[in-house]
Every structure is written in structure tokens, then in C-alpha cells.
Amino acid sequence: MIESSYHPGKTFVHTFDPRAKLFLLIVYTTAMFLPFQIEILAVYAAVMIILAFPAAGIRDAFSPLKVLLPLIILIIILTPPFFREGEVLITYNTWIILTDSGLIRTCVLLSRFIGITYVFFVFFRATPLNQVVLTLRWYGLPIKAALIISMTFRFIPNVTSTYHRVSDAHKLRGSFQSGMWGWSRLKGLVPVLTSVLIQTVKSIPVMSMSLEHRGFGRTIRRTSYQRLRGGRKLFTHLTFSIIIALMLIAPIFLVR
């Protein structure tokens, strides 16, 4: 419950006000679903990948791509056959493998998928989880909903780290090896996942006690140990975020 995906740093991505960052996250996610040209979507996705370097560091900047690689491969394989209109680019005998329309649609899906993944990655890597909760409360979200969201984003990395620790322990015993494939790998994953499940279930009492200490379920008015500062900095960052938001959605008006 004490783990999070926050990567400490003093870059402009870290010091930017979390309320402005959340506003930009919502606008960026919305913009990625607008009918932009592929060049614009690709630029938006590339910008998020570049921002991942100051947000997460050089070592972890490409970690989302490693996780998404199987889905990216599926999109590349399965999308082109469903779009056969337009100029044919690749054929095999009488089978149409790739057209220009299929290529564009594949690039659009990849740009949107990667861009949205990276904007959330950058946000949670560069924003402490306590500030995320305070930001949600600042926007009017109830304390219960904000606490549930914070629990969710704390629990995911906790389960991930538990899996890595358990798998390393099984590797030392020789019961699970990273180079295994097929049935042997699935067979070796059974004791690993069983151990992870047991450790996760054992954490339930700790989680319930943490909720009790935070007064979850009480009807009294809640106070906060920390508060987000306002003033000139907040006004400047919100103004800057509004300008960026207008730039993100401006191409839709230029196309029309």
C-alpha cells in the first residue's frame, strides 16, 4: 500500500502544478480521439514519449512500449485486413495484404494507443499520489472516490513488485526460468501466480486497517494533512495549460 509509480525529480514535468497536469491529461486524451490527420496524431504521441524521459528517466522511458508490445503486434497484424479500400501496397498471389487505407488506420490506432498510454504514464510518474488525490478533491471529487482511485493505483504496482519478488524466489529454487516457453512456462507460472495470490490475500487485513486509520466510512467532515498551494503559480500554470489545450484542439478547426 505504500508503493506508487512516482519517480522523484525536479524537472519541469515534476514541478508543474498537478491541477494543470490533470486538466491537460483530460484534454490530451480527448484530442487523441478527434478526427485528426495521422501526422498530427503521430506528433502528439511522439511528444508524450519525449516527455517520458524527464518524467521517468532514460531507463524507464520505454517501459510502456515493452508492456504494450504484444498488443502493438496484434494491431499491426489484425488491422490492415479489415481496410481494403484504396491503393494496394502489398499483395500475395490474389490476397490483398496491405492497402494505403489499412496502413493509415493502423498508424492512427497505434498513435492513439501509444499516446494515451504515455500521457497517463507521464502523469503518474511525475506526480506524487498524494497530490493526485488532493487534485481530485480540488476538482470536487468526494473523498471516498478519491481514496478508491489512490488505492487502485497503489495496488497495481504493489502486485507487480510482488510478482517480481516471487518469480525471483522461484528462479533461485530452479522451479521457474525466464527462458521457458510453451507448456513448460505455463506449468512454471502456476506456483508463481499461486504465491502472488496468497500474498495479495494476506495484504487485505493491512489494507482494511489502513482504511480504518484514514477514517473511511465516517460521516464527519474530513480534513487534509497536506494542501495544494494556490496563488500566482497556480494561475500561471493553469493559464499555460489552457493555451496548450487550445493548441491541441486547434487543428480540428483548421481542417474544417
Set down the secondary structure blueprint.
Blueprint: H1 12-15, H2 18-31, H3 38-56, H4 63-78, E1 88-92, E2 95-99, H5 100-125, H6 129-138, H7 143-173, H8 182-213, H9 232-255
Plain-language structure description:
By secondary structure, the chain is mainly alpha-helical. It has helices spanning 12-15, 18-31, 38-56, 63-78, 100-125, 129-138, 143-173, 182-213, 232-255, and strands at 88-92, 95-99. A two-stranded antiparallel sheet has the order 1-2.
Low-pLDDT segments, ≥5 res? none
Which class do the helix and strand fractions yield?
mainly alpha
Helix-strand string = HHHHEEHHHHH
What is the C-alpha radius of gyration, as a whole number of Å? Answer: 22 Å
Cross-sheet strand order for the largest sheet? 1-2
Strand content: under 5%
Largest sheet: number of strands, sense, barrel closure: 2 strands, antiparallel
Number of domains: 2
Mean pLDDT, rounded to whole units? 82
The protein's oligomeric status is: single chain
Q: What global shape is seen?
A: flat
Count of DSSP helices?
9
Would you count the extended β strands for me? 2
The percent range for helix content is 55-70%
> First CA to last CA: what distance?
49 Å
